Amino acid sequence: MTTTFTSSRRSLVWGAIASAAALGCLGAQAQTFPDKPMKIIVGAPAGGSADVIARSLGEGVSQLLGQPVIVDNKPGAAGLIGTQELLKAPRDGHTLMIAVNGLVSEIPHVMKLPFDPMKELRPVVELARTGLLLVASPQLQVSDVKGAVAHIKANPGKISYASYSTGSMSHTLGLEFNKLMGTDMVHVGYRGSPPALVDVMGGTVPFMFDGPATSIPLVKGGKLKALATTAPQRMGLLPDVPTFAELGHQDLTEVVWMGLWTTPDVPAANQAKLRDAVLKVMQNPKVREQFAGLGLEMGSGATPDELSRSLRAASDKQATLLRAIGFKPE
């Protein structure tokens, strides 16, 4: 029997053939990926939390995918040096980056960039998350948030709070605190947590919203007071410190998360293979114990699309808070 193809039927057939070929290529690509050594860029110095996590993940991913994983530290410029290194690399999934969400949701509001992180970066996995701590000088006769609010209101216009960077969550949490509590703390921006914490410990600046990696050792050493955390749950290393939500201030629940990033144009099959491998490594009890030792919770398991939506929402919120005080990027 002879079959006659019309023009439209030919188009359908060739379209089906093309689709099958494309799917075949993607399948073959996923099977062969990775086919060379991989690199994880860390936009922070060796020895920090991001570096420790990168090396732990790199070891596990290497075992699962059968290729060496190199950790390449590129600190500086709030993670932008590492980001530019990622953007210069081939877009095939062999080069990845570990960085915090603020690189996308905060930095673009602080400084003018030659690229749009929201468009150029793609989250693969949320690795770890944590809240910030409201810490106070040990000299203050304050032991909780209620006492802090009373102290600030008793000294109108005289009480300040530090941040580890102007325009960061450490800064805008103070703005939200003022709004919710009816206080008027004055912001003092620093270049990083260490110099800010020196002044908080010394009493020059009474309060600060800071990350647990830098604050917890000082709290445990009696050099700082921890009043509350912005995390959804109490921190494992500071079980006696309440969350703001527990105290009735749900709007002060905020998290910083550390993720594994790539670029959107990396083949979807390669991204999926990387994500699956990393999620398996994160189930390892030794890895989970290591994260807990750093004061971090394991990532939420959110999908890349869910993470992208949360980044957009966080960016919009940050922009609104900074616009309200007339802040403009440098």
In the residues, how many domains can be counted? Answer: 2
How many helical elements? 13
Radius of gyration: 23 Å
> Which blocks of ≥5 consecutive residues have pLDDT under 50?
1-13, 16-20
Let me know the number of strands: 11
Q: Write down the CATH topology of the largest domain.
A: D-Maltodextrin-Binding Protein, domain 2
Major sheet characteristics: 6 strands, mixed
What is the helical fraction, as a range of percent? 40-55%
Order of helices and strands: HEHEHEHHHEEHEHEHEHEEHHEH
Chart the SSEs and their pairings.
Layout: H1 7-32, E1 38-42, H2 49-65, E2 69-73, H3 80-88, E3 95-100, H4 102-105, H5 107-110, H6 117-120, E4 122-130, E5 133-136, H7 145-154, E6 160-163, H8 169-181, E7 186-189, H9 193-202, E8 207-210, H10 212-220, E9 225-229, E10 256-262, H11 268-282, H12 285-293, E11 297-298, H13 304-324
Parallel strand pairs: 1-2, 1-3, 6-7, 6-8
Antiparallel strand pairs: 3-10, 4-10, 4-11, 5-8, 5-9
Helix pairs in contact: 1-11, 2-11
